[in-house]
Amino acid sequence: MTVSNRALPASLSPRRGVLRAAFTLVELLVVIAIIGVLVALLLPAVQAAREAARRAQCQNHLKQIGLAWLNHEGTHKFMPSGGWGSKWSGDPNRGFGKDQPGSWVYNILPFMEQQQLRQLGKGTTPLTPAFENASKQLHQTPIAGLHCPSRRPAVLYLANMPSMASAFTFLTPIGQNEGVVKTDYAASSGDSYHSASASFRDGSSIPQPGSYAEADGTGRIPSPFATWDPRMDDPESKWLQTGVSHFRSEIPIQRIEDGTSNTYMVGEKWMSIDQYQGTGGTSATPGFSWGENQSAYNGWEWDAHRVAWSPYSHQKGWLNNTTDIEFHQPSQDQAGVGLNDPEVKFGSAHAGGFNMVYCDGSVHTLSYDINHLTHAYLANRLDGQSVTSP
Description:
Blueprint: H1 25-76, H2 104-107, H3 115-118, H4 129-139, H5 162-165, E1 185-188, E2 264-268, E3 305-306, H6 325-328, E4 331-332, E5 347-348, E6 353-358, E7 363-367, H7 372-379
Parallel strand pairs: 1-3, 4-5
Antiparallel strand pairs: 1-2, 2-6, 6-7
């Protein structure tokens, strides 16, 4: 008798109908718990890696800004001027230097591959529709290189510029407009509040710059051209300009007497997190900041300039005044700060430190715990102090 080795039909298989046991509830909970632990372990690492990438991108933005400054100096023989003040914006018909109303940001546009933006309105007359249309396009074209990716993207942000709104309708209504270009980076205007000419902003203490004729009796255009106040270049005066960009400044690299590797150029500015979307309200409204209400292209203001310290004089002895050290020490952005914002200081959205490009083009990450004297010395281009960069 022959025995067949053929397999039994599935219908006759003795294992037919036997099912594999499913996961129990306990096993599912264990798996979920393991996944949760892995996510908890990996998420901080992923977030840290993303922040490291954003910080590196921020440093690269400052590197490019530094190169633009040095190329500007190589072409025009002086560092980018700070402009005329918050009441004025960039004018393509007025070149570079002390006769240019716009900010240092406006002045470096050709050196950041933005020549077309810098030329908008060329050949037009101020306060005409053609000039306003060009200005609108300029102020409403975001530039990624002006923003720290850890803080906010390159889009338009709310403007609060009443001094210019009468001339540019796209800035109205105040605090509810389409927005303008902002910057997260500020030029170093020196080691103190006074060295940044803050007291000259109203035009009562220093002749107003400009050669525009007054138009329509509105007062929106500066009075006839006047000479530079000699106090701003007097080493013995408390008004001495100690930074690299000021009102109508034309500072050649030779005037950076402490050395380009020992002097701040541009760094990250401090902001309240509440102001990331721009500043509404008025100067008497909580949340308003003089350091975040203008366009990046407006002349000298706290929006695009900062100082290392805010006592009202850098004359001998002022550095011993430590009353406001904590308030004006560089720090990480925070929320909930009101009318007393330290709007003149440096800082950033990064944990642990802020980025700064020096006048030699090198980029440094500085601790928020930097010694306040070292910080002030690095902001002053001609104090003669020997400083080892931290």
